[in-house]
């Protein structure tokens, strides 16, 4: 009897300790990044210049530390990737929830999860070995924002598709079948009832995919050319924020301007991804609220 | 809190294992240009001295282990500063502030290398050009001569693709300092994390031009190098200093390095010189 209570309290305290540890580590990481972030203090550096206008050329004279080009590249690559992946993901979601027989579903769903589990470097390497030489038939280099976006689309596809399929499946049967019983076509029932009810869930998946895409580093580093240039189109080269940080942090002396600039870039990236996650949580709450009506 | 004393021995043991591993092996890292040479040397070193006492009877009988990794010249220095590395490989001169931070490091120049201008053998430039002037190089790598026709009027108006190492490469700093000087390098350049990755790209793209280790390009039949201001990046020209874009390759250790690090550095300066020559770099001592 005494043993049981001891085991109970050990488990309770142990799990609490584990949780506290995890939260503390998270707080430390966030705190450290915030603490180490500041606008480079070099002469002539302004907030607008740092965020938008200046070039990134820390080796030049005088050194320039602007991360605008990296923001542009991140937004273009992630935006393009999500725009490409979403229609496909919705189609996959429809197939899985509406069309597929259970046997197909039982194979396709784990396969989709497996696709999400493939390491980024493998995607990057596949893109580098196939897509880059293909694009070089028409372009000076295959390394372009478009190339990175195509591979990134493949990487975020499973996330969006899985969430979409789940949202479609969650739409109450009585609504769908009620509609079908009234004699509407399957297409009408899907577009007017299921899609409408599931829209917030699908959107949550899209936003989740965006967050995932923003944090992606290795694949985009390999496929964009890692060129610190302001992108001027989809076939331009570029250097997303994550690639900039990965490339330059090793060379940034601790507490140098370059170091602060890179930590600030990291803070911006983190804040964006956290904001995206908060948005998803809010949407899920909204959905749950709507279900009760 | 009561649990802590019970865990303490386990922690001590873990620390002991970590310290032990640190003692029996040496860790080397840095320049990806020096990486192939030093990895070969490390393999030969471990072959010759299976255990540390064979290299120096005063040392223990543990198996000799030498880890070698890349990371770039910048990492070679940084790894020494933060204790990650026992020996750093650096393919450029150390900066004064780096020497100051390290507090008088032990440095050995074990080879010399040239920074060569290289393209694919099928590049349009290979047809008409034998070399470049410094002014032309500044024009090309600053992005002012963005097309082949800007370099040579008889060539097509095709985009020149500039490829470079990223900031951690020793070549990048040397090229900025001695060729570009005040000019900024074109932002549209592709940056590669290692010399090997850069050379791979050069092998597959005939629109590309790069400044890269002459030693690393030397044996590659698919690539060609160019003269700079009329001087070829040959071994003689590196030795007699006529080719100005040459650089030292160093092994560096913190002040008063461990006996093991010392032994390996001595080996690099002695037996390993033949490997240096074999791999296309200029040895600093006559090889046997």
CATH class of chain A: Mainly Alpha
Number of strands of chain B: 11
Instruction: Give the overall shape of chain B, derived from the CA principal axes.
Output: elongated
- How many strands, what sense, and barrel or not for the largest sheet of chain A? 2 strands, antiparallel
| CATH topology tier name of chain A | MetI-like fold
Strand content of chain B: 15-25%
- SS strand fraction of chain A: under 5%
Description:
The complex is a heterodimer of chains A (293) and B (288). Chain A is mainly α. Chain A contains 11 helices and 2 strands. Chain A has a single domain, classed as Orthogonal Bundle (MetI-like fold). Helices cover 76% and strands 1% of the residues of chain A. The longest helix of chain A is centred in the last third of the chain and has 36 residues, at 257-292. Chain A starts with a helix and ends with a helix. In chain A, α1 (2-36) packs across α11 (257-292). Chain B is α/β, with parallel strands linked by helices. Chain B has 2 domains: 4-112 and 248-283, D-Maltodextrin-Binding Protein, domain 2; 114-246, 3-Layer(aba) Sandwich (D-Maltodextrin-Binding Protein, domain 2), CATH 3.40.190. Helices cover 42% and strands 22% of the residues of chain B. In chain B, strands 1, 2, 3, 4, 5, 6, 7, 8, 9, 10 and 11 form an 11-stranded mixed beta sheet that branches. The longest helix of chain B is centred in the first third of the chain and has 21 residues, at 4-24. The radius of gyration of chain B is 22 Å and the shape is elongated. The relative contact order of chain B is 0.19. The chains are: A mainly alpha (293), B alpha/beta (288). Chains A and B meet through β1 of A and α4, α9 and β7 of B.
Summarize the structure.
The complex is a heterodimer of chains A (293) and B (288). With 293 residues, chain A is mostly helical.
Present the secondary structure layout.
The complex is a heterodimer of chains A (293) and B (288).
Chain A lengths: L1 H35 L10 H7 L2 E2 L6 E2 L2 H32 L2 H16 L2 H16 L9 H26 L2 H9 L4 H30 L2 H7 L16 H8 L8 H36 L1
Antiparallel strand pairs in A: 1-2
Chain B lengths: L3 H21 E6 L4 H14 L3 H4 L9 E7 L1 H9 L5 E4 L5 H7 L3 E15 L3 H5 L2 E2 L1 H8 L6 H4 L9 E5 L4 H11 L9 E3 L2 H10 L3 E6 H5 L4 E6 L6 H5 L6 E8 L5 H11 L3 H6 L3 E2 L5
Parallel strand pairs in B: 1-2, 1-3, 5-9, 6-7, 6-8
Antiparallel strand pairs in B: 3-10, 4-8, 4-9, 4-10, 4-11
């Amino acid at each position: 009897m005494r043993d049981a209570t001891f085991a109970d309290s050990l488990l309770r305290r142990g799990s609490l300790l584990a949780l506290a540890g995890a939260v503390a580590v998270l707080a430390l990481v966030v705190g450290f990044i915030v603490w180490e972030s500041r606008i480079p203090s070099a002469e002539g550096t302004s907030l607008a210049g740092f965020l938008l206008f200046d070039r990134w050329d820390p080796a030049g004279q005088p050194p320039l530390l602007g991360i605008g080009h990296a923001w542009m590249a991140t937004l273009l690559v992630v935006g393009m990737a999500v725009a490409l992946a979403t229609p496909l993901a919705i189609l996959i979601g429809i197939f899985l929830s509406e069309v597929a027989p259970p046997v197909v579903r039982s194979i396709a769903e784990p396969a989709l999860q497996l696709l999400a589990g493939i390491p980024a470097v493998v995607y990057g390497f596949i893109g580098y070995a196939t897509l880059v030489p293909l694009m070089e038939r028409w372009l000076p280099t295959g390394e372009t924002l478009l190339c990175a976006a195509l591979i990134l689309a493949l990487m975020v596809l499973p996330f969006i598709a899985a969430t979409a399929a789940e949202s479609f499946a969650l739409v109450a049967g009585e609504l769908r079948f009620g509609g079908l019983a009234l004699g509407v076509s399957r297409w009408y029932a899907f577009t007017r009832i299921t899609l409408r009810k599931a829209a917030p869930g699908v959107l949550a998946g899209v936003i989740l995919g965006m967050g995932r895409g923003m944090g992606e580093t290795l694949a985009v580093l390999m496929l964009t050319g890692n060129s610190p240039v302001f992108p001027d189109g989809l076939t331009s080269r570029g250097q997303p924020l994550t690639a900039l940080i990965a490339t330059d942090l090793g060379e940034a002396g601790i507490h140098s301007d370059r170091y602060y600039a890179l930590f600030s870039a990291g803070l911006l990236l983190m804040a964006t991804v956290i904001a995206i996650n908060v948005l998803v949580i809010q949407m899920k709450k909204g959905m749950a609220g709507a279900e009760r009506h | 809190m009561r649990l802590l004393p019970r865990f303490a021995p386990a922690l001590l043991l873990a620390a002991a294992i970590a310290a032990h591993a640190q003692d029996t092996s040496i860790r080397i890292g840095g320049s990806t240009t020096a990486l192939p040479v030093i990895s070969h040397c490390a393999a030969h070193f471990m072959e010759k001295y299976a255990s540390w006492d064979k290299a120096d009877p005063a040392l223990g009988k543990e198996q000799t282990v030498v880890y070698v990794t890349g990371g770039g010249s910048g990492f070679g220095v940084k790894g020494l500063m933060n204790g990650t590395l026992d020996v750093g490989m650096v393919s450029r001169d150390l900066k004064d502030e780096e020497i100051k931070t390290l507090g008088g490091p032990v440095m050995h120049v074990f080879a010399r290398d040239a920074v060569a201008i290289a393209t694919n053998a099928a590049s349009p430039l290979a047809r008409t050009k034998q070399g470049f002037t410094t002014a032309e190089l500044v024009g090309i790598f600053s992005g002012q001569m963005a097309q082949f026709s800007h370099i040579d009027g008889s060539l097509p108006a095709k985009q020149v693709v500039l490829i470079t190492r990223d900031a951690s490469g020793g070549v990048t700093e040397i090229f900025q300092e001695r060729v570009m000087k005040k000019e900024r390098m074109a932002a549209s350049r592709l940056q590669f994390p290692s010399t090997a990755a850069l050379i791979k790209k050069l092998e597959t793209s005939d629109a590309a031009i790069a400044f890269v280790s002459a030693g690393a390009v030397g044996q590659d039949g698919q690539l060609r190098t160019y003269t700079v201001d009329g001087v070829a990046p040959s071994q003689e020209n590196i030795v007699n200093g006529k080719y100005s874009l040459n650089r030292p390759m160093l092994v560096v250790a913190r002040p008063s390095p461990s006996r093991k690090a010392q032994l390996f550095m001595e080996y690099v300066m002695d037996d390993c010189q033949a490997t240096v020559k074999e791999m296309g770099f200029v040895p600093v001592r006559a090889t046997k």
